[in-house]
Known about the structure:
alpha+beta; six-stranded mixed beta sheet; 15 helices
Amino acid sequence: MNLNIISNTRLFKLAGFVGIVLIVASCNKDLPNATPIIYPPANSSTTSIGTLISTDTSYSFFKAAATKVGVLASLSDSTKLFTVFLPNNNAFRVSGIPSVNVVNALPITTIGGIVNYAIIPGQQYTSATILTTFPNIQLPTLLTIGKLPGTPINLNLSTFPSVRSNGFWDNNIPVVMPDIKMQNGVIHLVAGIVAPPSQVLRDALYSDPNLTYFKAAIARADSGQDGLNKFDSLLNYPVTNMTVLAPNDAAFQTLIFGLAFQGYLTAVLPSHTATDTANAIATANGAVAAGPFFLSTNNVTTALVRGVIAYHFLATPNPLTGSFEPNIRVFSVNFSPTPSLVTTLVNSSFAPHPGILVSPTFTTIGPNISIVTDLKFTGLAFSLSDPGGTPTGTATATSLDNHAVNGVYYVIDKVLLPQ
């Protein structure tokens, strides 16, 4: 386990990235520079979105929800514009809400989240106007969760539509019928409810009982750092867009076993007797038995742990500074159907590193509708003879598209190593 790249290079800084985030208010990709799309002579339909929802019984669940929240009248206003990712009754049922009675029984905060997160006010975006660049675009919805930190500006949760040759999605939910043009906007019919996130990444990750080593690794990686240079602070910051690969406890136990085993044998070189091997195994088992505490000991360096954690945050270069920042929210359906490379925060310290190889498996579930049913991440080691990278191990995502206010995380079954 040669980890020279991450243990010997300078530690990157995160505070500058967060400062930029405050300015751009969490843009995943720039919004399209487009004016509202008006269909000649004014609109292509004489029926408003609200009228359709009120009169078409296939939307009776959403009608009940929108009525309870109080937005149906606004959706019926022909002077306003909306893009609505609309779930019909079947989409509610698929999402675990079987009847209007259940809709009416849900707390107003839950119903408000479902309805307001489905609505993008002020613009109508057809599938043709949604950018096809990686990973998606960011559109603020009606759902407000407070104020942008340090400002009086409302913080509205964003949704992330994407269009590819193999499908159209809102977040990771397939659009089953796009571009239903109405008098005051456009409807995209979705296969299921596009649920809003309710926690920041820090709370979601730290509350998972299978990610205790990951939490401990974050704490060690942050040793000696302050403020927003800490991963912990970044994970808790609500106005960012991040994608985090979180190795589960079993993955870290395997890594710790290997580190302790290798460390013992290295210490006794050039001797490699059967006794040495047995002692190395015993030492490694003892390290695993120590649990997450092992990551806080002198058996590993802070630089090594910080480098490992950095390799699990996807990142792209800032076009102004060239520095790599954890600035993209990538759902599984946003990855290319063919294996492709994505860069990480390791590139902040070592720009030539190839990154991580991502290999999704898309499964068709309907006409022009696909979802990801398997997702693998391969760690790569850089060398001058092989700048494209030599595989250091492949992880399978055991939990996909865990959506948080400030990003997405995947639980994976192996710790990825960049060297």
